[in-house]
Design goal:
Rossmann fold, seven-stranded mixed β-sheet, single chain, alpha/beta
Length: about 400
């Protein structure tokens, strides 16, 4: 019997449902028809070649059988393709295909595909329907939910974008079987970030799952009922957490700096985005950079006497269950700290950092209140966590 979970995301701009199940892509046509309310006759799938080779036929066939006229647009594989030129090409494709206001874009892939497809859907004809079918763990628990879309520029990450909520999200946990170890680890880094925000229960649930199912061997148990039940519960808990936070601050108000602001979801992202930028978006998986960012935020919190060593140790222990993250050695430290200035959370000339008083107690701190030396100290400490550093 299939295990299916449904989560309703309720936001001011739109409400939609997240469906989580195994081997459900072949039924996505009926799901899409339900999400779109029977309107529209065309859908344009946005994906990349690697993902489309794996799942494109099943998705296209199901959508066609549901009565949709289906076409597809493929982008390059990698963060560097989340760009304005790619977005322009996608928009030109939607126009040539005569995708109308009652039609929809289907994002089939990871976070790069979801962000790019969502951005194109937000701009085409000032906004058309969007359906998210995430195929990476990180996209399942993060970018597919919440309505943030966008592209990177040479100046910084996600500096150009729009809020555009999907009509629905379909998660097929069977797609996890085809993910390489680094991609899985990247998704679990984002889960660890959520656990740090939510509280020790979610963090320990993640830790216990990783102890039982190491990322180095996740392809084997994918058809095991216990694995499916536990990963479904874990994904559900992460989505529910994000849904609650987003519902309270859907457009991430610049004026809010409380512990319930949507900005808290950026825990670890100040350093993460800087690392990605200075390495040309090609060295780190996004989640790997977030993993380093969470460790940096914890060390900085301890340096500023916001939290104690137990918080740092707990986060270090869980992150290191994933194995070593890509090394920080050789990355230009000055360029990393210079990149902080272009963080999208910059307000009135200063950027805001999400730090921790305790697990489950995030706090937003203005950079003017953080001595530069404290940031350097925290960065050097996480460098010291690397083997042979």
């Amino acid at each position: 019997m299939r295990l299916t979970q449904r989560i309703e995301i309720i936001e001011r701009a739109a409400s939609y449902e997240v469906v989580i199940a195994a081997d459900v892509l072949k039924e996505c046509g009926a799901w899409a028809s339900e999400c779109l309310g029977g309107t529209g006759s065309r859908v344009a799938i946005v994906s990349n070649e690697k993902v489309f080779d794996l799942y494109g036929s099943a998705v296209e066939n199901s959508l066609s059988q549901a009565g949709f006229r289906v076409s597809h647009f493929l982008i390059g594989d990698g963060e560097e393709f989340k760009s304005l030129p790619t977005a322009q090409a996608a928009l030109e494709y939607l126009a040539v295909e005569e995708i109308s206001r009652t039609d929809a874009v289907v994002a089939l892939g990871g976070g790069v595909v979801g962000d790019l497809a969502g951005f194109a859907a937000a701009l085409h004809l000032r906004g058309i329907g969007l359906l998210q079918i995430p195929t990476t763990l990180l996209a399942m628990i993060d970018s597919s939910v919440g309505g943030k879309t966008g592209v990177n520029t040479a100046i910084g990450k996600n500096l150009i974008g729009a809020f555009h909520q999907p009509k629905g999200v379909l998660i097929d946990i069977a797609t996890l079987a085809t993910l390489p170890e680094r991609e899985l680890a990247a998704g679990f880094c984002e889960m660890i970030k959520h656990g740090a925000l939510c509280g020790e229960d979610l963090l320990r649930q993640t830790d216990q799952f990783l102890a039982a199912f190491p990322v180095s061997d996740l392809s084997e148990p994918i058809n095991d009922h216990l694995f499916q039940a536990q990963i479904t519960d874990l994904i559900s808990a992460n989505i529910a957490l994000k849904g609650r936070i987003v519902a309270g601050d859907e457009r991430e108000s610049a004026r809010r700096a409380d512990g319930q602001s949507r900005k808290i979801l950026n825990l670890g992202h100040t350093l993460a985005h800087a690392l990605e930028k200075v390495t040309g978006y090609q060295y780190f998986k996004h989640g790997e950079a977030v993993g380093w960012g969470v460790l940096f935020a914890a060390e900085l919190s301890k340096t500023l006497a916001l939290c104690d060593e137990t918080v740092v140790k707990l986060l270090n222990d869980v992150v290191h269950r994933l194995g070593p993250l890509p090394t920080l050695a050789g990355i230009d430290e000055e360029a990393v700290f210079a990149a902080f200035r272009f963080d999208k959370k910059n307000v009135s000339g200063a950027f805001q950092m999400v730090l921790l008083k305790h697990i489950g107690q995030p706090v937003i701190v203005d950079s003017t209140e953080i001595p530069a030396e404290a940031m350097r100290t925290a960065y050097h400490r996480i460098q010291g966590l690397e083997p042979n550093s």
